[in-house]
Amino acid sequence: MKHTLTLDYDLAAGWLRPFVEGLAEGVARARRCDGCGRVSFVPLRVCDCGKAHGSWIDLPGTATVSRRTTGADGDFGLVTFAGADTKTVARLDGFGPGDRQGAIVRPPSALPAIILRPEPKVA
Amino acid sequence: MDKMVAVLGAALTTFNRRKDGSSFRDWAAEATDAAIAMAGLERAEIEMLVVASESDFFTLQLNPASVLANDLGLSGAAAFRVEGGGASGQLAVHAGVQAILSGTAARVLVVGVDPSASQLPAAAMKELYSYSFDFWHEGATGVSATALYALSVQGAMERLGLTDDDLAAVTIGNRDNARLNPNAHLPRQHTAEEIAASPMIASPYRRLHCSPLSDGAAALVLAAEASVPAARRSAARIRGIGAATDRVHLGARTAPDHFAAKTTAMGRACTMADVTPEQLEAAEVYDAYAGAQIQALEALGLSSDIVVDLRGDAFGRGGRCPVNLSGGLMGQGAPVGAIGVAQTATCALLVEGRYHDGLQPATPPALALADTHGGVCTTAAVTIVGQGAAA
Ligand SMILES: [Zn+2]
Questions:
Q1: Is B161 on the interface with A (CB under 8 A)?
Q2: What residues of A are in contact with residue B200 (Cβ under 8 Å)?
Q3: From the CA atom positions of chain A, what is the Rg in Å?
Q4: pTM (2 decimals)?
Q5: ipTM, 2 decimals?
Q6: Is residue A108 in some structural domain?
Q7: Relative orientation angle of helices B336-352 and B88-101, to the nearest 10 degrees
Q8: Distance from the CA of B251 to the center of ligand 1, in angstroms?
Q9: Domain boundaries, chain B
């Protein structure tokens, strides 16, 4: 029996709204803990120190790739954004085999995707 | 020792891709009927049904527990669904154990089921699984489960000095065990060359390092000590359960290559059972990917020298602690809601000495471990099964 289901969601970003709005503009908006100053990107609502209060800050948007996986599923990295104390997973767009540095770009759709394009190493 | 729950009945259906027109409701019924028969109980004696199924999108059935209670002839029993991603089945076992230990119910049926193979195209399943990570960035970024596991295993390989041969050995071992398991989805004799030639999905993971999507069900009948029938005094006993979570984001973890939630969950289960990890004599381990099995064995503390034990025979069929005698997810298959229930069922059958010929150790293990997780070990759930009274 064939059956098709089409769902048309209207999703609310909730507390993640500044982060999601940042991504739409190509900006890496992170959360800095008001208690210990630790900066998380992607943002953590409650810091590892236990504080739930944080402030939104815009990072420069450059990132360093520490792990990378490639294959049929695409090109992805575990990356650290400059100014962040945590890593995050990002899609690597146009990275050559030796590229380790990138900068965030505006995603092609409304979805809050984290996408990096390579940028030349800073001397 | 007073905190024990008897496993009166334990059964699995075949795990595979169904092409026979049967539905998840048939598989749940098949596993349930077999488990109740083994338990020697009447349906009316079951006071609670706990269903594990990962997603309504798979079954296209919201509130599946009420539908299954009806199909299984359990009207009147309490019925609910437990969900925790890949760990759903083991968390459902835990819910059943907790109900019995709290005195809420004396006899509980736990059913795990999912149509992960035959109802939706593989691409749709892959997209749905991507929503099991944090949708708001990992999901939206389009990263697959395979890619996330790949990013996690790289650090473990570097730290432990593991090679592609070590990954291949997991696939080869589990699928070789599956050849002796008549319920298995992928009984195969693979070579390292064949694995190395399979398509790269997300480096270092190739197609043959990945577990399949499967259809199937598993069921357990659990009972309080006071409700164990005389004929089932030798039934296996659940002696310890433990669960824990880690940061959902790989990048927020101190060590993205370490399955820390598993270590915590195992510690909790061992404390409850009053045993140490070294005492385990068999383990069904969550091998969603070849390397995940190695990361699991390390995090569970089943070895003091993981590399020596991996490359030796400690975890093989005749070893000190045989791992994934069933074939694991890689060989037996992975109908996601059924996995944890099937693992605990397998452990119960092993300690009772009732497992498949050729896989059942001559001396049944005194203690066996069922290890399950969801996400890239974001939610961990383990169960320790021991022997019942001497027959
Ligand atoms: Zn803090």
A1: no
A2: 70-72
A3: 16
A4: 0.97
A5: 0.96
A6: yes
A7: 60
A8: 16
A9: 5-120+212-386
